[in-house]
Amino acid sequence: MTSSAGTGRAGGPRLAAPPRRDRYAFQNAAIALGLAAVVFAAITGVRVGNSGVGFSDVLQILWSKLTSNPPTDRAQLQAHNIIWELRVPRVALAVLGGAALAVAGVLFQGLLRNPLVSPYTLGIAPAAAFGASIAIVLFGGSVHGGPAPLVVGALFFAFLNTALVLTLASARNLNPTTLILVGIALSQLFGALTACIQYFAEDEVLAAIVRWTWGSVNNSAWYQVLVLLALVVAVFPYVRLRSGVINAIAFAGDDPAKSLGVPVSRVRLECIAIAATLTAVTIAFTGIIGFVGLVAPHIARLVVGANHRFLIPFSAITGALLLIVADSLGRLVIAPGVIPVGIIDALVGAPIFLYLIITRQKAVE
Asked: Model's pTM, two decimal places?
């Protein structure tokens, strides 16, 4: 009689699963390599431009800033100002914005148990676009890093949309599918309101609204970097701490998770509120940038798997890399002109996402 320890269900030889310790070692190594790639890509992104600044110049300028030893030579001082005041905030905002949108995407996909949702599923981006459009019309807010009304308008309506969705979910105990449908309805509503503003706006105002909806990290400011950094540092430990609970909801479903003692409704509301906040603050500073929150989690799953303990940090790394690369390409393609990062992101992200869908469908078949 054949021993059950050496056979599978069909009687053939059973392959031993890789030890969990080895799997964890690989996932941790992937995260470490990803962080190194982000650092390298960030330095490369700071290097990209038309001022003739090389890698050694970038490293020297960053070191002089860290050691509080500013250059005295006029040429070096000019390069220092270009790097530290223009390019470093731009790259830093791309890193933090990409990471924030990717983490938000992971939370939405896991908690709503739908791999095709993104930070915009609940109508956050259309609501922010409507708020920014109102600010531009009423206050003449410039795009990206302009006066406070633009940022405040985008944030206000993004949070208003989120509060409406979460209130409906809490009061009516909506299931994830219905929650997505509510988000789609609100997306259409705010999209229509923004279109109305664009239809009646003057040419200059219309151009400003359209540029904002393209998404860009041009004219990034240090206050934007610091605000987004504080937000990411504040919420990331909590989200990582909740990774086990998110695993239970994403893999088992609501009822089995509840049987394990997981407060599903409370966790879903808290984490969706966090994801919405990350998305709202990011797009208030950068404009609408799509596909990062949708594609980055899928790429991360291919590398480290679906365990949110590793998926959340690696998705943040992937999102940061995607946005840095998209911004660098936007500055190189038509240099000295700049293509907004939102356009590059969509052009690069759409084929990647189509490839992921096709390959996953073939794997299922």
From this structure: 0.85
**Amino acid present at 306:** A
Residue 298, domain CATH: 1.10.3470.10
Question: In this structure, is residue 13 part of a structural domain?
Answer: no
The domain of 348 spans 30-364
Residue 148, pLDDT above cutoff 50:
yes
Of 10-14, 99-103, 269-273, which has the strongest mean pLDDT? 99-103
Residue 328 domain-assigned (yes or no): yes
Count of domains for the chain: 1
